[in-house]
Design a protein that fits this description.
By secondary structure, the protein is of the alpha/beta class. It has 6 helices and 19 strands.
Amino acid sequence: MGQTLLQLQNGELKGSVSLKLSENLSHFPLAIFDLADTLEVLDLSFNKLSVLPADFGRLKKLRIFFCSENHFKALPEVLADCPRLDIVGFKSNQIEMVPAKALNPNLRWLILTNNNIATLPDEIGLCPRMEKLMLAGNRLAALPETLSQCKNLGLLRIAANKLHELPQWIATMPKLAWIAFSGNNFSKTPAVEKLSAINWHDLEISHILGEGASGVISKANHTINDEIQEVAVKVFKGDVTSDGLPEDEMMAYIAAGFHPSLVNLIGHITLHPEDKKGLVMELIPHHFYNLGNPPSLESCTRDVFPPERILTEKQILGIARIIASLAAQLHNAGIMHGDLYAHNTLIDEDGSALFGDFGAASFYNQLNAELVFALERIEVLAFGYLLDDLLSLYRQPISGKTLQTIAALRDTCLLADQQKRPGFKELTAALAEIS
């Protein structure tokens, strides 16, 4: 819930730690400086701002600044004047220039999705704390090699750009676990089998089940030959998301093929009134629930879990086996999921799991052995973090052969040296042997 400019100007917000203003502002409200002694989070998204004041650095306590959906043409250099600033979001502006000085060395999370950026300065390598870098939907033809100096980088989104290749230094990044790179010049989408076409007018939308970056999922009734089938319908928003392009998500989902833990695809939507793309899927049974929640501003790249979430040994082993098996199938098909997380996993009390959300999925060239090895080991690191999360939800000391074996597998997945991490086939076999 946002506050109002009038409240700010009347002094009603004095002492605020957080401020959110969205009122078609064309100028930065100078009254914000009245909060300089306390303000840590500032959100000025969905306005008409194009510049920040020269003395923006007066906000000495500012840690988080969101300024998406505005009119900036360059990332403001004054961002470097805030000593504690570590999360910056300028999604969906008109940014063409990223000046070297604008890159605050304290940055941990930088969002520049959906702009017009063609090059990044070498100085981005001088941000040693950088964990999360969102660059999807720009015009980047190359990434600076100095980015390889950001050894804490865990999540990288570079889909929907103009990159000619994946940089070789990707294979040297010790903490890189989640990467999305579809929709670039080097990306080749293989031919996928055609899904059945389902007329939008044969679907009766009931209610929204959930909404993600790429689309809205609703419950619906599908009428076919006078029979009604309950289904889930995902309608893509059609814009570049933080992960990439909706059509790439759709193709990856289809190419993934059948797996008992993938939600089954029934068909794709035709004749949508707004000409939007969409998928029709089986409805997920009611007894499944989300394993975790997406990362918070504090956790950055790691999922967070409700305090009441507790897993049994049976659930941990079941989930681990299923996700390893599915990831092995995806990489066998040349698909990088890119978002292997607990928050994309649905589970039940018996240890069954359903996995989805292909928004960050990318196809890669299976003839390039080095690339195949490196990308799978990046995803294996994400799997290691997932195993770590599962074990943390046991809420008791790790004892007994089953959990100790899983803990040992986690440790090998989390090795900083990619060359020493196992592959998914090896992991699937090791987990199958646990009695």
